[in-house]
Design a protein that fits this description.
Elements (H helix, E strand, L loop, with lengths): L4 E6 L3 E6 L4 E5 L14 E6 L13 E6 L3 E6 L4 E5 L13 E6 L10 H4 L13 E7 L2 E6 L4 E10 L5 E11 L8 E6 L3 E7 L11 E7 L14 E6 L9 E8 L3 E8 L8 E7 L14 E6 L9 E6 L3 E6 L4 E5 L20 E6 L15 E4 L3 E6 L4 E6 L14 E6 L15 H52 L10 H6 L4 H11 L2 H46 L1
Antiparallel strand pairs: 1-2, 2-3, 3-4, 5-6, 6-7, 7-8, 9-10, 10-11, 11-12, 13-14, 14-15, 15-16, 17-18, 18-19, 19-20, 21-22, 22-23, 23-24, 25-26, 26-27, 27-28
């Protein structure tokens, strides 16, 4: 479990990795203490972050991570938020100086639900302390979603002046976004100066796709809010492309410096599940992926991506975007050669090498097209990190300055290079300066790692083939499950019939779905199956007509022959 990566996050020039046992590792540029190692030194490969300086706070496992430009956030399993790095705008959640080790964000400690902030007399609201479930960061701001579905924001974030006008205001204290009070914030992302959130339409979110809409607010000089204009907003507004009447429902959002990317599923019930990537905002470096440098004030779909690709991960760098499909295909597009997005470009003359359309990133292993066991992609200012092999392998490409790629060097890489994972165990004699012995130890360990990789290459090739087949079957099973039950297959909620007998009793499961469905859902299912039935009848009718025409032609031909004879 200590080697399985479950999440990655990329800042301006640093990267965080969270493992399944709750450990945190960081690498890259160390200025401002953003790596959390208690130093400001650069790290060329993954190293564990330092412990907290609060001796009276019990240690807990981390369950979430986030990175801004120069700061980092960690979420622990007790619901507490910890921060480190740059703090000029209060993005660490306190008014102290920059921190080089994780420090507790005290504001959430002892708070009840957001109601307690307005009703101090309510004893019930403070019976249990508020717990944070999700952390996000971008630019110089930080965000958190608590166990009540409320959104909190701090740092250099969008706010309203006294007369309701948009402004950027620094706050070292997390503030609740009251606009969503009474609703559940499910997803959130932020760029340099704008925020996008996926929110439930009802007070209680029941997990249905139709219950979600997409909001945005903040700086809108480039149309990054997707609201159809370039007017900045101090309060959240619904993006009409993804409102309650839209045929699309958002399931993932990401923000670059001045652009927004969204993954959405089609709500259609009469055809195969379809997912698309939508982008809006600044497009001068091709970060929107539409084949031009044109900016867009409304989200536009990327029709250049394969229609049958089911996209599972999305992230934005400052001026580039990356997506990953369920079958391990990775595409990137956006700014300049340093990102490794255009390995086939000449980069001569004034050509900046920007990728205006999605380019497939070739996998160095297997068949060179797909990565096995894709998990997540994360984009920094000029680098990209991919988690593959179901969490046991990391790849990075782009600019290598300060060791941000985690490969043990500072050289750029125009194609995916393996991150030195799992982390190398540093050994040094007692009493010696371990920092002085690191280069020699690194060289020895890197050599051993390369030798091991060569020995395992033959076995890996066969294993990758099996994993490719498994990924295909998993995708097929998921699409089939969505088509029948209108929700993704979740291994944590396997059907009771499958758990008890090893056999999936589809009749029993459908009866359970029908029993729990409300009138609206039953109507949708009826329309879905009626559409299927009518399609079958239409197909049979067409075939019968063709057969009749064929018979008539044969009879006519035979009749002509008889008459001529």
């Amino acid at each position: 479990m200590s080697r399985k990566v479950v999440a990655v996050a990329a800042g301006e020039a640093h990267t965080l990795a969270l493992t399944a046992d709750g450990s945190l590792f960081s690498w890259g540029r160390g200025t401002f203490g953003r790596l959390g190692t208690s130093r400001e030194d650069d790290e060329l490969f993954p190293v564990p972050i330092a412990s907290s300086d609060s001796s009276n706070v019990p240690q807990a496992n981390y369950t979430g991570i986030a990175t801004g430009a120069y700061h980092s956030l960690g979420l622990r399993d007790d619901g507490s938020v910890w921060s480190w790095g740059y703090n000029v705008y209060g993005q660490l959640g306190h008014d102290k100086e920059n921190c080089s080790i994780p420090c507790l964000v005290e504001h959430f400690k002892g708070l009840g639900s957001p109601d307690s902030l307005t009703d101090q007399s309510s004893a019930a609201s403070t019976e249990s302390s508020l717990k944070i479930c999700t952390v996000k960061a971008g630019g110089m701001m930080s965000l958190a979603i608590d166990n009540h579905g409320s959104l909190w924001i701090w740092g250099n974030s969008p706010q309203a002046t006294e007369d309701g006008q948009f402004c950027l205001s620094s706050s070292a204290v997390p503030l609740p976004v009251w606009h969503f009070h009474g609703h559940t914030v499910v997803k959130v992302a932020c760029g340099n100066e704008h925020v996008v959130a996926v929110v439930s339409t009802a007070e209680i979110y029941n997990g249905g796709d139709g219950d979600l809409v997409c909001y945005s607010w903040g700086n809108n000089k480039h149309g990054q809010l997707g609201l159809g204009d370039k007017e900045s907003r101090s309060q959240p507004e619904i993006i009409s492309t993804f409102d309650v009447e839209s045929p699309w429902v958002v399931y993932e959002v990401a923000c670059g410096a001045f652009h927004t990317a969204i993954l959405a599923n089609k709500k259609s019930y009469d055809q195969e599940i379809e997912s698309k990537c939508w982008t809006c905002g600044l497009g001068e470096n091709g970060q929107l992926g539409h084949g031009t440098t044109r900016s867009s004030c409304v989200p536009e779909p990327l029709d250049s991506l394969p229609q049958d690709a089911f996209l599972i991960s999305l992230d934005c760098g400052l001026f580039h975007t990356s997506v990953v499909s369920s079958t391990g295909e990775v595409w990137s597009w956006g700014m300049e050669k340093g990102l490794g997005l255009c390995p086939d470009a000449s980069f001569t003359g004034t050509d900046p090498g920007d990728a205006h359309l999605p380019l497939r990133i070739r996998a160095p292993e297997a068949n060179g097209i797909r990565f096995t066991g894709p998990v997540q992609v994360a984009c920094g200012a000029a680098h990209t990190v991919l988690v593959s092999d179901n969490g046991y392998k990391l790849w990075a490409w782009g600019r290598g300055r300060s060791g941000v790629l985690g490969t043990g060097s500072t050289t750029d890489s125009y194609s995916p290079s393996p991150v030195l994972w799992p982390p190398i165990e540093m050994t040094a004699k007692k009493g010696s300066n371990s920092r002085d012995t690191m280069p020699k130890t690194r060289d020895n360990e890197v050599g051993k790692l390369q030798e091991t990789e060569q020995k395992l290459s033959a076995a890996t090739e066969e294993l990758n083939l099996l994993r490719t087949k498994l990924t295909l079957m998993e995708r097929y099973a998921n699409l089939l499950h969505i088509s029948m039950f209108r929700k993704p297959l979740d291994e944590r909620r396997l059907s009771q019939s499958l758990q008890e007998s090893g056999v999936f009793d589809i009749r029993k499961e459908l009866e359970g779905v029908l029993e729990k469905a409300d009138d609206e859902e039953l109507t949708r299912m009826e329309m879905f199956y009626r559409g299927m039935l009518s399609t079958v009848k239409e197909k049979l009718m067409k075939r019968r007509v063709k057969e009749l025409v064929k018979e008539c032609l044969i009879e006519l031909s035979t009749g002509r022959q008889h008459s001529s004879s």
